[in-house]
Amino acid sequence: MSAVRPPAAAAASGSGGPARMLERHLGSERVARVTYGAIIGMALIVVLEKHPPASGIVVGTLLATALAVTLAELYSEVIGHQTRTHARVQRHHLRHLAGEVAAVGFGIAFPSVFFLAAVAGLLEEDTAFTLAKWSGLGLIGFYGFCAARLAGDRFLPALLQALAVAAIGALLIAFKAVVH
Prior knowledge:
Layout: H1 7-13, H2 17-26, H3 30-50, H4 55-85, H5 91-109, H6 112-119, H7 125-150, H8 155-179
Helix pairs in contact: 3-4, 3-5, 3-7, 3-8, 4-5, 4-6, 6-7, 7-8
């Protein structure tokens, strides 16, 4: 496997397609926000699994949580901007902020695809919960690995970082499994 290159190196090489899109994404602030959202979504899934509602209710809960957290993030960014700059947020800046905070909502809402599949009869509800938890864990580990590689770590230290951050999520899942 080749090393993940910093976004500037990828742009200089002229590479395109999905790899270029991934490198642009990894170089953006949205990675932190998607990660934050994925952690919230995973925690919500773990809690809902104790007394699982119907899959449609899980979808609604994830989407409503994503909307609420996204709006809270947007509001806090606007307030922070105004207190920092002593000026109102301009429309173009508000659009930029909305795009950034939407990444949190995406991270929270993503597991709803598994529950939509369960509503459609393509997955069992238990399978949807399992996929939702472990895909969140995989995403968090993937971002941890990429962050370490982009910071210059070799493969093994990057893998160890990915495993360490994924272990935190796995502990949450394991704790809930033991307690309930």
